[in-house]
Structure formats: C-alpha cells, structure tokens
Amino acid sequence: MSRFAAVDLGASSGRVMVWDGRTLTEAHRFPNGPVRTPGGLRWDLRGLYREVLHGLRRAGPVTSIGVDSWAVDYGLLDSSGSLLGDPVHYRDERTGGIAERVASEIGAETLYDVAGLQVLPFNTVYQLLADDLGRAATMLLVPDLIAYLLTGEIGAEVTNASTTGLLDVRTRSWATGLIERLGLPARIFPPLRRPGDPIGPLLPEAAAEIGRTCRVTAVASHDTASAVAAVPAPGPRFAYVSCGTWSLAGVELPAPVLTEAGRAANFTNEAGIDGTVRYLRNVMGLWLLQESLRAWPGAGFGGLLEAAGHERPFAALVDPDAPVFLPPGDMPSRIAAECRRTGQEPPSSPPALVRCVLESLALGHRRAIRQAVALSGHDVEAVHLVGGGSRNALLCRLTADACGLPVVAGPAEATALGNVLVQARAAGEVAGLAEMRALAAGVEPLRRYEPSGDASAWDEAEARITTVGAGAHR
C-alpha cells in the first residue's frame, strides 16, 4: 500500500501521522490552544501552518495528504484570497445572546428542521452573525483553510460544513433559504466537496517547504467524522464516544432524526462518511481535566489517575456541560464553586477532583448514549470509546459501569486513522467502509471493559445530579 499523511488538528494538540497500510506512525506532534489578543481569543493559524509543514517535511514521501480539525471555527478571505485575520476561537465570548436572538427571530424549530443541529453558543452560524463580514469574499473552515494554504484551492468539505448550522441536513447542500433569512452574504459560502474528492497538488512554495510534491485529498475533515469512520465495529449495533478535549457521544444512522424530542434533547445530525449521519450530543470532555492540570504545575497525571481510582465513589458530581466550564481558566476553583452551589462538599484533593470529573463525564456519556438510542430507535450492543480518552482506563471502566454496556477502547488515534483510510480508499487501495473498520481493528490492541459496577448506584447518582440541578443538560 502507498503511504498517506494525516494532518490531524485538535483543540489542544496537532499531529502529522503516516500510514503505510499496516502501521500508523507519528511524524510530528505539537501543542495547540487559544491565544488571548486585544481582539479576543484567537487561533495562531500561521503557527499551526508552520507546524503542519514541519510535520509533512518529517513525514517523508507520501501519495497524498488529508487535513481534519475541530469544527465550527473559520477564517475569512478577502477578494484577493488574503486572510483577513486569525480565526476566532470558539471559546471567545463574542456570541453571547445570539443563539437566543436567532431562535426568537427565526424559530428554533425552523433552524432544527433545516440543519438538524444542536444549539451550542459557538456554532458557526452564531459566530458569523457576530462577525464583520463586509470585506469577506469567502469563509473557510479550519481544515479547508489549511488545505487552501497548501493548494490554493477553495472549497468546504461536507462533514465539517454540517456543523455550521447552515447546511441542509437532507440534501447536504448549503441552506440558501436559511442563509438569506439570516441576512448572511451567500457569496462567502464556497463549493462543497465530499470525502475522497481530490483537492489539488501542493503549491510550489508548499512543495519547496517540505521538499517534495504530492496531492491533497478531501477526507472526513471534521475530526469526529474521521474518528467514527475508524470505529472498529464489526456491525452496525454500536454507540461511540470520540473522547478528547470534547466527548462526542452517539450512534451512526442512515438518515437524520428531526423530531421535536430530538431537538428538545439538543441532539445533532452531522454528516458522516458514505451518507451516514452522526446522531450525537457534545459532552464537555477531558477539557475539565486539561484545564485542571494547568492549575497544578508539576502534577503527574498517571499518579493522579491511580490515586483517583481509590477515592470514594460519587463523593461529588457536576454537570460537565454547565456553561461555567466552557471558558479557559482556573477549573478546580470553578468545580469547587459549582459543588458548593449545588450543596455538595467540594473535592478535597486533586485525586478527588479527578474522580469527580471522570464520574461526571461517565454520567454524561451515559445520558447521551441512552438518549441517542431512545430517540433514534437504534439499539446498541457495545460502546466504542476512541480517541485520546481511550488510554484512560479509569474513564473507560466508569463509562462501562455507567452505561451498563461493554466498552471497547481504541484506537487512540482514530481520527488520524479515519483520515488516512479515506485517502487509501480514494486511491483504490481499500474497498469500502467495512474494510476500513476491519483495518482499524488491527492497528493497535483493543481493550474491552465489561460493566462491573452496581447499576443501581449509577441510577442513584444520575438522579442525585439531576435533583441538585448539576446534571440536567442545558
């Protein structure tokens, strides 16, 4: 098999990975995160691009390159194709109150019937309404923006476009009627492309930077779409949790679910590979731990996890999706304040706080998966937990206990794996989605966690967290 490179950009780190048909190898890994500027929180796009080029240089000769990233954020190009500024970070506070205004003016039901998207304050539609679009000729989501810098080609890959709130969930085309009603300029929405479509060869300057030329191929450019494409499930009866900075928990369906019950539960219908739908809900994820570790310089994460396993179960619980946890900052203090607000004793030590976060996150996984099954009628036999969180044995065990289902953990680099497998299929070296998932199952040893806890204890924990107001999903 040829060699394929995945540029996989996450909200806390980026990496360039290479697949040779058997092994997925890391060529380069680098940190990522928000930069606070006088104009608000931004992404350092130029710094990211430099790291991407460095990783591709280290990757060596490859047949093609694919780019995926987190969702919703974008850059704006002017009429000459120049970037108007670094992309605004989704945790910036500029969209405050806009979702409520749009729901009042357009109708929450109308928005959901068209786009099928969960309401999150940072959805692209709300960011665009908060932006100055006067000089903008084109909007490019982050992976499409990196592909543009590499090739000069403009386009929007459909799995990521489906997270904007401006894509018609039925036709997978831009929702021009909704765009017009919102007063957004139609000119900024680029042509759509699908996973596997060719984007183009590297620009001469990019090829010179990495020391060789190759082509760039569209992949499932929303990182969760790539991760779900690499879920190593032997059949359709599975739920998934793509767990990193965020946890995306749900099921894979052949068609969207646009019921009022789904809208009220804030479930989203996002485009997956081969016409599938990722019916899921966002859970705040390991962000709470990532920010807590920043407040504990020198703390060893492995030691904290081991100690957390011995802490008293359910001593304190929070809703990981509470809006107070969204911005960066002193997470331990906010968790303690939320515990006090809900009449609980705050965690007394870092291991106790880690236990609180992981049990709360497991309950978030449980709520999302159980609701996805109930709302879609899609029964599941196991939960596949992929991404960086699959390395966290305590989280996997707690998720199995909370859900009452086996958890299959791995692959940890599912997003990069889905990225390269789409490229391999586009090159004719992999036959289809079933073969992609079979290959994904053999990349690293998978770990299986059977439910071992007391199911009634988790029922009581969920009832308790809901009662104190810390667990009801906003």
Automatic annotation (TrEMBL):
One of the GO biological process terms: glycerol metabolic process
Membrane-spanning residues: none
Keywords, in A-Z order: ATP-binding, Disulfide bond, Kinase, Nucleotide-binding, Rhamnose metabolism, Transferase
Residue ranges constituting the Carbohydrate kinase FGGY N-terminal domain according to the UniProt record: 61-228
Cross-referenced SUPFAM superfamilies: Actin-like ATPase domain (SSF53067)
Pfam annotation, one family: FGGY_N
Domain Carbohydrate kinase FGGY C-terminal: 239-427
UniProt GO MF annotations: ATP binding; glycerol kinase activity; rhamnulokinase activity
One cellular component (GO) term of this entry: cytosol
InterPro entries the record matches: ATPase_NBD, FGGY_C, FGGY_N, Rhamnulokinase
Family: Belongs to the FGGY kinase family.
UniProt protein name: Carbohydrate kinase
Species of provenance: Planomonospora sphaerica
